[in-house]
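Please decode residue identities from the backbone states below.
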């Protein structure tokens, strides 16, 4: 790995082993530290370690700067909320006309924030006044109608009384003349009134509470306002009624005022002098017009200010986030006792050494520092992080592996094989080239529009689908391939590559399902002969084919996993794992299930009628019995005895030697009284980073129990994992049968009615069932089963997955990440 990096700054991508990492130490002068961290963030190839973990965030060196950045971020969020309410969007990112420093930006954001807050406060006050005047105008109009109607009613009543006085008395003539009552001032009752607006939904309850509180000694008059009114308090549009309450006495007035306050009724004064009503309405209308003009002018000014902010918002937001990230990283650095240097430690790939040194030198030059930064490699026994450089195609496959566990440092990566095996095993369960074409078309839509879609916010499900678009593309391509092998297009077979090798015995094909067909041509060249579909022997034939194919694929993939454990042992120079893990495991698996796979292939090639179930069962129960008609090749009995003996021997081979050899190795390493002295640099590093396990006592019982569990797990897992691969057969059969049901019981049934409406309904049901069940639910089901086969049956043979990911400090990622609010 190290040799590769010498040919250039960026070696070719290698997914088999993670990049070779190194622990580096940087000594940065204070005057160039900020610029150096910024350049390293642009590079994005170093993961800093927190050297101040024991300190709280408030005790760190740059806590004040982070607080300033947090305050500026708050102001920017306030600007974004205001732009969102105004229906404005920040302008697309472009190069700023002038690069602002953090201090200048802080002053500018403070001025803009103060101005916008003042504009909002003034606007809120003016809007409140405007809404109150609008309600006041409605009260003047509606309450004026109350008094006008009452006055006209009184005048009519007076005229009627005068006409009655001129005529003869009748039964309806009052006993006590009203004129006498009017002349007696002691009998006058002075009524007060309160006018305002109450929400329409509360008007009935308002009326009932008034009646009960005053024992009916009030008169309430209400009028409906046609249009919703903006409430001055809440600022929302509310349907309201104008009311006028007439009462007598101060006690009743106090009760009415409390009830109005409880119901949120806004009260407005109304003059008893009706002659002033028109003048007051004119004055209110004039004030409303002035306020409207002022509000419009304020809205224009506010819009211009927000538009000015929006033009530079993205640049300011990115600058603040970058500065906050830089200062957060600087807080992870330890400060020298002289307070003139900052010391940083972090992990970086070996190939990035030259780039890091160039970035440090450039930071020293640009900051005009007198002292250059120091870069040195530290030697440590600490486990480095795992770093795989992926692209947009391989990243989704690597995420599938990382979801199980991140690879240990330079451990063999299953992601290399997952790129091929994952979509292929999915396709074995999803084999239909019609459904595969539908999946491919849907995926091509995401791939063609990936630039546009990557910059948009998608839903959770769409985001996951878009992220795995290349995985789904390969799944679709492999499904088309296996669909050609199964010869299924929405469950319908086609003679794609040649005519069928079988024909009916007579022209009417009456005996095709009972007696069978006859072979007249060469075997169908690729995949299943279309003549098998619809026959009585279709299911037995396909079940046998897919079940045996599943076993072959499973044994092959498990063998690949065990072989990868061999390469891991070679890479880490662990000879014990080679001789006492790889060798017995490969012997045990192939003595049983490798032999079964060989029998399947021999049976296919020879056309034998041997019962493989009988062969495998009696290989254990009666290994010395004669095979008879189940014999597939000469010497089969002896071969089975040898394989059975090897399988039995491999179990103690896995279990016993390794714990004793580990104990012997431990005693040899720690039994010597003297050892050569390490170099000075190595001695310092070993004291700081020495593995704690080297000082622990060797627990033989614990190691032996661990090896026992591992052995039992492998022996039982060899059987259960092989059986687990039969899910390939089961799901393939289920997918095929569901396709047949939807085709025959929906589409063909609707076609048989010879009715256009029924046919259209049948086609719609068929499309919905195919998309909903076969293209969505079945896709998800096959995906999850393929995921289980890789995680459990394949990766547990060699993959430890106990590493941790390499997360470099990268400013480029800030542009694509959502800001944490």
């Amino acid at each position: 790995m190290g040799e590769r990096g010498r040919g250039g700054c960026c070696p070719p991508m290698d997914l088999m082993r993670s990049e070779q990492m190194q622990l580096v130490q940087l000594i940065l002068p204070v005057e160039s530290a900020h610029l150096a961290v910024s350049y390293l963030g642009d590079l994005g190839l170093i993961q800093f370690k927190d050297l101040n973990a024991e300190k709280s965030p408030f005790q760190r060196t740059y806590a004040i700067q982070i607080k300033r950045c947090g305050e500026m971020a708050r102001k920017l969020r306030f600007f974004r909320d205001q732009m969102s309410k105004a229906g404005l969007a920040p302008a697309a990112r472009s190069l700023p006309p002038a690069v602002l420093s953090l201090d200048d930006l802080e002053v500018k954001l403070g001025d803009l924030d103060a101005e916008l807050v003042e504009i909002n406060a003034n606007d809120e006050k003016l809007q409140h006044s405007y809404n109150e005047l609008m309600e006041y105008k409605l009260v003047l109009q509606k309450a004026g109608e109350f008094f006008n109607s009452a006055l006209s009613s009184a005048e009519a009543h007076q005229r009627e009384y005068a006409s009655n006085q001129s005529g003869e008395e009748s039964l309806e003539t009052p006993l006590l003349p009203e004129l006498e009552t009017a002349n007696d001032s002691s009998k006058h009752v002075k009524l007060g009134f309160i006018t305002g607006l109450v929400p329409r939904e509360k008007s009935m309850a308002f009326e009932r509470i008034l009646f009960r509180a005053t024992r009916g000694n009030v008169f309430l008059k209400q009028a409906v306002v046609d249009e919703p009114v903006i409430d001055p308090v809440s600022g929302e549009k509310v349907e309201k009624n104008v009311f006028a309450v007439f009462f007598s006495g101060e006690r009743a007035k106090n009760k009415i005022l409390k009830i109005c306050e409880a119901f949120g009724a806004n009260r407005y004064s109304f003059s008893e002098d009706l002659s002033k009503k028109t003048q007051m309405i004119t004055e209110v209308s004039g004030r409303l017009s002035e306020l409207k003009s002022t509000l419009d002018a304020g809205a224009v000014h506010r819009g211009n200010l927000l538009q000015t902010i929006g033009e530079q918002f993205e640049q300011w937001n990115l600058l603040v986030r970058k500065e906050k990230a830089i200062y957060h990283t600087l807080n992870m650095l330890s400060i020298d006792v002289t307070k003139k240097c900052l010391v940083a430690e972090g992990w970086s790939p070996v190939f990035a050494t030259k780039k890091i040194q160039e970035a440090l030198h450039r930071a020293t030059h640009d900051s005009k520092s007198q002292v250059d930064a120091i870069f040195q490699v530290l030697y440590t026994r600490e486990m480095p992080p795992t770093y795989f450089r992926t692209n947009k195609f391989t990243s989704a496959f690597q995420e599938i592996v990382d979801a199980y566990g991140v690879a240990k440092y330079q451990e063999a990566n299953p992601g290399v094989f997952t790129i091929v095996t994952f979509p292929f095993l999915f396709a074995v369960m999803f084999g239909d080239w019609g459904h595969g074409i539908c999946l491919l078309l849907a995926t091509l839509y995401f791939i063609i529009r990936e630039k546009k879609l990557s910059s948009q916010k998608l839903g959770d499900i769409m985001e996951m689908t878009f992220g795995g678009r290349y995985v789904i593309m390969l799944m679709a391509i492999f499904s088309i391939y296996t669909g050609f092998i199964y010869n299924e297009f929405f469950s319908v077979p086609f003679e794609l590559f040649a005519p069928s090798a079988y024909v009916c015995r007579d022209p009417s094909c009456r005996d095709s399902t009972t007696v069978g067909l006859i072979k007249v041509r060469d075997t169908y060249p690729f995949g299943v002969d279309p003549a098998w579909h619809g026959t009585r022997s279709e299911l037995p034939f396909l079940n046998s084919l897919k079940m045996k194919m599943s076993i072959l694929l499973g044994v092959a993939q498990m063998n690949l996993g065990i072989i990868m454990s061999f390469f891991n042992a070679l890479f880490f120079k662990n000879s014990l794992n080679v001789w006492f893990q790889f060798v017995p495991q490969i012997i045990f698996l192939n003595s049983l299930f490798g032999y079964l796979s060989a029998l399947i292939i021999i049976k296919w090639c020879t056309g034998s009628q041997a019962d493989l179930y009988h062969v495998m069962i009696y290989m254990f129960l009666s290994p010395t019995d004669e095979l008879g008609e189940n014999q597939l090749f000469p010497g089969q009995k002896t071969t089975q005895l040898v394989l059975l003996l090897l399988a039995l021997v491999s179990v103690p081979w896995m279990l016993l030697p390794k714990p004793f050899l580990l104990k012997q190795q431990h005693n040899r390493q720690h039994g010597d009284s003297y050892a050569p002295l390490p170099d000075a640099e190595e001695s310092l590093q070993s004291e700081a980073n020495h593995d704690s396990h080297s000082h622990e006592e060797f627990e033989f019982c614990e190691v032996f129990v661990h090896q026992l569990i591992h052995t039992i797990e492998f022996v039982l897992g060899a059987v259960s994992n092989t059986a687990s691969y039969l899910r390939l057969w089961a799901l393939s059969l289920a997918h095929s049968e569901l396709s047949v049901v939807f085709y025959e019981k929906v589409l063909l049934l609707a076609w048989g009615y010879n009715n256009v409406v029924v046919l259209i309904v049948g086609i719609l049901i068929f499309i919905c069932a195919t998309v909903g069940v076969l293209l969505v639910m079945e896709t998800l089901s096959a995906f999850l089963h393929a995921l289980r086969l890789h995680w459990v049956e394949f990766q547990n043979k060699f993959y430890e997955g106990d590493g941790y990911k390499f997360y470099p400090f990268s400013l480029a990622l800030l542009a694509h990440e959502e800001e944490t609010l």
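Observation: The first helix runs from residue 30 to 43.
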